[in-house]
Design a protein that fits this description.
The structure holds two protein chains of two kinds. By secondary structure, chain A is α+β, with helices and mostly antiparallel strands. Chain A has six helices and eight strands; from the N terminus they run H-H-E-E-E-E-H-H-E-E-E-E-H-H. The model of chain A is unreliable at 62-68 (pLDDT under 50). In chain A, helix 1 (2-58) runs antiparallel to helix 2 (74-95), helix 1 runs parallel beside helix 5 (244-259) and helix 3 runs antiparallel to helix 4 (157-184). Chain A has a four-stranded antiparallel β-sheet with strand order 1-2-3-4. Chain A has a four-stranded antiparallel β-sheet with strand order 5-6-7-8. Among the domains of chain A are: 93-172, Copper Amine Oxidase, Chain A, domain 1, CATH 3.30.457; 173-274. The longest helix of chain A is centred in the first third of the chain and has 57 residues, at 2-58. Chain B is of the alpha+beta class. Chain B has three domains: 3-76, no CATH class; 83-195, Double Stranded RNA Binding Domain (2-Layer Sandwich); 241-333, Ubiquitin-like (UB roll) (Roll). Chain B is 36% helix and 20% strand. In chain B, the strands form two sheets. Chain B has a six-stranded antiparallel β-sheet, with helices on both faces. The longest helix of chain B has 15 residues, at 100-114. Chain B starts with a helix and ends with a strand. The model of chain B is unreliable at 216-225 and 337-343 (pLDDT under 50). The chains are: A alpha+beta, B alpha+beta. The A-B interface holds A 89, 98, 100, 102, 107, 109, 123, 125, 136-142, 144, 147, 194-198, 200-201, 222, 224-226 and B 93, 95-100, 124, 128, 154-159, 204-206, 210, 212-215, 324.
């Protein structure tokens, strides 16, 4: 029935989310391990060189001392340091928050992403003296930056950045879903997609391919949690004249929208239709 | 159709440049494509507007529909008006679920309850901008369609851009309606005015290209790879000074285009500092003076002052803080405290 289908979908969504998390963790772990390998390799080279030198010293100055087996040159050390830093910066970039020291403080950059697609980056330039305060920033005006910084900036910078990153990422992902819907599923939308600056209220009329050609659904998605990219309320309705089965479908869709990203939900409609054919 | 409506449509069409008339009428959508085909858009504008009015008569246009054409015109040519920026304040911390329908209802209700004779139109645009056109009347006269006020509001932001008509007496009512409709508590005019609406938005929404230090900045020396002068007889004596000026200018203004402002005004209430022996002013009163910088593009011209050798780099912070502080109208008073010099009043 519908509920088992929904349960299956829910389980699938959970599974996909878990797998994604695992994958990300593994990638981070891999980057860290690669770095460690580099470190160990250079350490080994250094020790090897020392050992060789010692051996040469004991057996006397026999043979030509090649520059390759002596202590690594200053140039090589510098190169190694640069590569290591770049690796670290790359690893940090993957976490989404990176920073650079400035003359009077620090500049943080928060990048947003949705499942492998990198979206916009936002910057927060902070002064450290006389106390931690914002110098300037590129956070959009409708993100409650003042609220977040008033609460956390002076006491816990890490938490402040983490909360801000959550807000920005959630906004970027909501916007991405709405944009994807307009771009790829415009033939199923009737009229315009109504949204607001934060993309936390979406109202639109749509029809499912195959069914309900004369009875479009109206969806009203409200995202009360600004750190979440899934709606907290999803009201799907169709006109009263519509048959019973469509009312059921509306309820099903309502559940779907609350658990699955918008464009993926629409994707699943097309797939469902293909399966029925 | 009312004669006043016909006249209004005629005059609105006359404002539009001839090449744009057809596309604007299409955007308006009041006349069908078939009807538009019957108009000859190559004749003189007077005749075009007469034909348009005729078609509107056949379709019984009313003033609300005519007002939509006015909004479309002003949306495409916002630079014909002077815009001020207002900032709203709220005390609560509830997450904002902005509902356009509820905003419209509350706004209209507030205005209509105070003033019966108003024409109110709303139009929403792709970038979440809401345009509101209000034509004001009095309890005894119909609304004056030729002096409407325009409001541009982006949902869930505290800023409102208003281009008021000459009738300033309606401003308190308009401000109150905005505050109620958008669930804020207070509204205040900022000291920021310009004809370029997009530049005002860029400044308050911080969309202009600010300099952020990321871990791969592009130093200016790499950008301006000036080809070594072909003529070896020319030697640049001040190369290091030139590079310093460029670097300082880049640090202040950044890379990209600056928002467009037409003026910056400084009202000085400072003491005249002269040689005590000259005794120009016996009374110790502040010397009142107004300094106004005007330009078709003020910030770009400020940016080019130091590289052109017309001013020292870095420029005075009073000039460079314009975009950061989001104001182009300053009052400078004498500072009474530890630090000498003047300060800018908030």
């Amino acid at each position: 029935g519908v509920f088992t289908h929904l349960e299956r979908l829910e389980a699938q969504a959970h599974e996909a989310g878990r797998k994604q998390e695992e994958k990300e963790q593994q990638e981070e772990k891999l980057a860290r391990l690669k770095e460690r390998v580099e470190e160990l390799r250079t350490q080994r080279d250094k020790l090897q060189a020392k050992v060789d030198l010692q051996q040469k010293g004991q057996t006397g100055r026999k043979g030509i001392i090649e520059s390759g087996t002596t202590e690594p040159s200053a140039g090589a050390v510098l190169e190694w340091k640069i590569r290591r830093l770049q690796g670290m910066l790359q690893a940090f970039y993957l976490t989404g928050i990176s920073a650079k020291l400035t003359k009077r403080g620090v500049c943080f950059s928060i990048s947003t992403a949705y499942e492998g697609t990198y979206l916009d980056s936002y910057y927060l330039d902070l002064l450290i003296r006389p106390e931690v305060q914002i110098h300037h920033h590129s956070v959009p005006i409708f993100i409650p930056l003042e609220q977040i910084t008033k609460r956390y900036l002076k006491t816990d910078i890490r938490r402040c950045l983490s909360v801000l990153s959550d807000h920005l990422n959630a906004y970027a992902r909501r916007k991405y879903q709405a944009d994807q819907l307009q771009e790829h599923f415009s033939d199923q939308l009737e009229g315009t997609l109504q949204r607001n600056s934060l993309c936390n209220l979406l109202v639109f009329n749509y029809k499912v391919p195959g069914e309900g050609k004369t009875f479009p659904f109206n969806a009203r998605l409200i995202y009360r949690d600004l750190c979440c990219s899934l709606p907290t309320e999803a009201v799907v309705s169709c006109t009263e004249k519509a048959p019973e089965s469509l009312q059921e479908t509306a309820a099903a869709h309502s559940e779907l929208f609350r658990h699955l990203a918008l464009h993926k939900a629409f994707c699943s409609f097309s797939r469902a239709e293909e399966r029925e054919d | 159709m009312d004669e006043t409506v016909a006249e209004y449509i005629r005059r609105t069409v006359l404002k539009i440049p001839r090449d744009e008339i057809k596309s604007m009428l299409q955007k308006w959508g009041f006349l069908s494509e078939a009807e538009l085909q019957t108009i000859n858009f190559h004749q003189i504008k007077d005749n075009i507007s007469q034909e348009v009015v005729q078609l509107c008569e056949e379709n019984s246009a009313d003033i609300k529909q005519a007002a939509v054409l006015d909004i479309i015109y002003n949306h495409i040519y916002p630079n014909k008006r002077m815009w001020s920026v207002y900032q709203m304040k709220k005390t609560g911390e509830e997450p904002e679920i902005f509902d356009f329908q509820s905003f419209k209802k509350k706004f209209k209700r507030r205005l209509l309850s105070a003033l019966e004779n108003v024409t109110i139109n709303f139009r929403e645009y792709e970038d979440n901008a809401i345009w509101i056109r209000i034509a004001w009347g009095t309890p005894y006269t119909k609304p004056n369609q030729y002096k409407p006020s325009y409001v541009v509001y982006h949902s869930q932001t505290p800023y409102v851009f208003i281009s008021a008509s000459v009738l300033k007496s309606n401003m308190p009512l308009l401000c109150q309606a905005l505050v109620i409709a958008s669930s804020y508590h207070d509204i205040q005019e900022m000291e920021l005015r310009s004809r370029s609406l997009n530049s005002l938005k860029d400044i308050v929404f911080k969309r202009y290209n600010q300099n952020f230090k990321t871990y791969c900045p592009r130093p200016p020396q790499e950008r301006n790879a000036e080809p070594e002068s072909a003529d070896l007889r020319i030697i640049h004596e001040n190369r290091s000074e030139k590079e310093r000026i460029e670097r300082v200018t880049w640090e202040i203004f950044g890379d990209g285009p600056q928002p467009q402002l037409e003026f910056a005004q400084y009202k000085l209430e400072t003491m005249f500092k002269s040689d005590p022996k000259m005794e120009v002013l016996d009374k110790k009163e502040p010397f009142r003076c107004l300094v106004k910088f005007s330009s078709p593009h003020l910030l770009e011209s400020l940016r080019s002052l130091a590289p052109a050798g017309l001013a020292d780099a870095p420029l005075s912070p009073l000039l460079t803080c314009i975009t950061q502080k989001a104001r182009n109208n300053f009052k400078i008073k004498e500072k009474r405290g530890f630090f000498p010099g003047s300060f800018v009043s908030p």
